[in-house]
Design a protein that fits this description.
6-stranded mixed sheet, disordered N terminus, 7 helices
Length: 222
C-alpha cells in the first residue's frame, strides 16, 4: 500500500494527459468554491507581498506587443499547433475497451535514495484517478451531432476534417463552447482509428463507443 501511495504522489505529472487534466480542473474548481465560502482569520505576524503584481506584469508586457502580431503568423488553419490527428469516418457501430497502461521511462527513488519503482514499471492510471467527463471525438462536419450528445461538462475533441473546415478556436467562438483538437499522442494512447467515438471510464477501463452516423443529402446527420 505504501508503494502505491508513493506512486500516486510522485507520478501525477506522468499520467495520461486526459486523466491528469481532468483532475487539475476538478482541483481548481474545488479551491475556487472553498475560497468563495470560507471565512479567513489572521494568526501571527504578517508581511506585505514583495513580488510585483502578476496581472500588472502581464498587462505591461501585452502593451508592448505589436498590434499586427497575429497577422504575421498567417491563418490559424496553417498553425502546426492547431493541426488535429486524422481519423477515418466510422462505418460500423461497435464498442470496445482499453486499459491505458503506462510504463515508467525512468526510475523513481525516495529522497533518501532508495528505489521506489524501477524503470519499466507498468501500472494502470485508472486505478488511482477517475475520469468523470466523457470525451466526444468527432470531425468538424459532425460537430452539430457532438453538441447534441455531449453534456456541458464533457470534452469535445476535433479530429482532422476537410481542408475547408474552420479551426477549433473559430468553431468554439461560433458555438460558444470550448473545443479541443485531437492530439496525435492521445490518438495513439487510446488506439483511435475512426470518429465519431465517445470515450468514458467504466471501472478501471475506458469504454470506446464508435458511432456510425447516417448522413442526409444536405450534409446533416441523424
Amino acid at each position: 500500500m505504501r508503494r502505491l501511495l508513493g506512486l500516486r504522489r510522485r507520478l501525477s505529472g506522468r499520467w495520461s494527459i486526459f486523466a491528469i487534466g481532468f483532475l487539475i480542473g476538478l482541483a481548481i474548481a474545488f479551491l475556487h468554491a472553498r475560497a468563495a465560502h470560507a471565512a479567513s482569520s489572521t494568526i501571527g505576524r504578517t508581511w506585505a507581498i514583495a513580488e510585483p503584481d502578476a496581472m500588472a506584469e502581464i498587462e505591461a508586457r501585452a502593451a508592448t506587443v505589436p498590434p499586427d502580431l497575429a497577422a504575421r503568423f498567417g491563418p490559424r488553419t496553417n498553425w502546426s499547433a492547431m493541426r488535429s490527428a486524422h481519423l477515418a469516418p466510422a462505418t460500423h457501430a461497435r464498442t470496445r475497451f482499453v486499459v491505458p497502461f503506462y510504463t515508467l521511462d525512468q526510475e523513481v527513488r525516495l529522497p533518501d535514495g532508495r528505489l521506489l519503482y524501477p524503470k519499466g514499471f507498468t501500472f494502470n492510471p485508472l486505478s488511482y484517478v477517475s475520469l468523470p467527463q466523457k470525451l466526444v471525438i468527432v470531425q468538424p462536419r459532425d460537430l452539430g451531432w457532438a453538441l447534441r450528445v455531449a453534456a456541458p461538462a464533457d470534452f469535445i475533441l476535433l479530429a482532422a476534417g476537410g481542408p475547408r473546415d474552420a479551426d477549433a478556436i473559430s468553431l468554439g467562438e461560433q458555438h460558444r463552447r470550448a473545443l479541443f483538437i485531437l492530439e496525435e499522442r492521445v490518438k495513439q494512447r487510446l488506439g483511435l482509428t475512426v470518429a465519431p467515438v465517445i470515450v468514458r471510464q467504466v471501472g478501471q477501463k475506458l469504454e470506446l463507443s464508435e458511432v456510425r452516423l447516417d448522413r442526409r443529402s444536405d450534409g446533416g446527420t441523424r
